[in-house]
Amino acid sequence: MSQDEVARRLSAVGAKVRRGKLGSVLAVDFSKKITTDVTDEVPPESFGPGAELPSWVEDLGECVKCRELVLAGQPIGDSEVQYLFARLPSLQVVDLDRTWVTDVILDWAESMEKLKILSVSGTTITSNRVQVARKRLIKTRIVQLD
């Protein structure tokens, strides 16, 4: 899928998309609720291995040059973040505030060589696990506000 099509599809569900000079999607901001048929309260058991990825998450996976990703407040969990981390090696800033992610994403963050800021406020990620990750991810600032 072309970057034009990806940008159009992401914009259609409410994302603010920033593109580079050559047309690549460089930043995607979902700080407003997505406009699909999901509810505000998504039970965590709907995530996990074998769960079908929302089409907008698959579209994000096409943004291989994306550097900034704001998913705060979106109905996503560990499987969606793992999918995105595996496909978006250029990520530098990731905002996962108020999502359904757990401690395991901090392990996956270690594989993100360019990651500079990871925000996980309002998630179930424990403070102890964040402290351990901060020692291991010395080039990444992990933000967790109570």
Throw out a few tags for this protein:
single chain, 146 residues, alpha/beta, Leucine-rich repeat, LRR (right-handed beta-alpha superhelix), six-stranded mixed sheet, 5 helices
Describe the structure.
The chain is α/β, with parallel strands linked by helices and about 150 residues long. It has a single domain (about 5-145), classed as Alpha-Beta Horseshoe (Leucine-rich repeat, LRR (right-handed beta-alpha superhelix)), CATH 3.80.10.10. Helices cover about 30% and strands about 15% of the residues. The chain has helices spanning about 5-10, 55-60, 80-85, 105-110, 125-135; strands at about 15-20, 25-30, 70, 95, 115-120, 140-145. Strands 1-2-3-4-5-6 form a six-stranded mixed β-sheet, covered by helices on one side. The longest helix is centred in the first third of the chain and has 10 residues, at about 5-10. The protein is globular. The chain starts with a helix and ends with a strand.
Describe, in short, the structure shown.
Strands 1-2-3-4-5-6 form a six-stranded mixed beta sheet, with helices on one face.
CATH class: Alpha Beta
- The largest beta-sheet arranges its strands as 1-2-3-4-5-6
Beta-strand level of the residues, as a percent range? 5-15%
Count the strands? 6
For the biggest sheet, the summary is: 6 strands, mixed
Bin the helical content: 25-40%
- CATH superfamily, please? Ribonuclease Inhibitor
**Radius of gyration over all CA atoms, rounded:** 15 Å
What fold name goes in the CATH topology slot?
Leucine-rich repeat, LRR (right-handed beta-alpha superhelix)
Number of helices: 5
Low-confidence stretches: none
- Mean pLDDT comes to 89
Shape: globular
Tell me the domain tally: 1
CATH architecture: Alpha-Beta Horseshoe
